[in-house]
Amino acid sequence: MESEIMNVLLVHAHPEPHSLNGSLAHFTVQHLQHSGHGVQVSDLYAMQWKATLDTGDDLAFRAGEHFDPSANSKRAYDTGMQSADITHEQEKLRWADAVILQFPLWWFSMPAILKGWIDRVYACGFAYGVGEHSDTHWGDRYGEGLLSGKRAMLVITAGGWASHYAPRGINGAMDDILFPIQHGILFYPGFDVLPPHVIYRTGKIDDAGFEQVRKELGQRLDTLGTTTPIAFRKQNAGDYNIPELTLRTDLAPGETGLGIHVRQDPA
């Protein structure tokens, strides 16, 4: 079953356009457009994206004023005084039905330029700091928020073998490595997060291997709208004690670790 027609934002972070990542980004755009989807691209290196969140992001900031990253971010967002590049990326996120973050896994995380995109575009009042706090509701986050109802997926390249990232692999399980991104960056502001698409042993991919990689990526793109999301537990749906935000003792009793925040009975 193929996905319904969607608006898709591809946020791509690799400095070399003729790299594997660059080729896959080009393939993704062509494949999605051929399937009828609307596509926008944020090629961060090509855009020369400014990665550092600073006083320049608040156009109303005055020299000598104390800079509070969250407070200034919220003021700029609320008053329409954000740097224009931030506002433009937020407009893309509002437009998108699905967002793909594509990047090489560098030092167990995303490239700094992509983290800087998150730091600046995820303004206070936009991606966090929204919703009311009460005895039963602790802000609109972890399954709620401005980006709820949208889908997100990571497309990642890694130099190591799949076994290196297996549950008993030396690098740690890939699901654990990606938890801060998938749960903390994507699920937090409301995205339905799809299982990641990871391409391993990138340095060993020959022409035949590249065709297989494209085929497998195409299959994931074709099911972007139908793939079942990761069953992360929603913060305000009753699974967590509020305001402590600890998982109820009757859920995953005696267990700890990142896995307890994923429902094992997603139905």
UniProtKB/TrEMBL annotation:
Alphabetized InterPro entries for the sequence: Flavodoxin_fold (IPR003680), Flavoprotein-like_sf (IPR029039), NAD(P)H_dehydrogenase_qn (IPR051545)
Keyword annotations: Oxidoreductase
Domain Flavodoxin-like fold: 6-221
Gene Ontology MF terms: NAD(P)H dehydrogenase (quinone) activity
One cellular component (GO) term of this entry: cytosol
Family stated for the protein in its record: Belongs to the NAD(P)H dehydrogenase (quinone) family.
Protein name per the record: NAD(P)H dehydrogenase
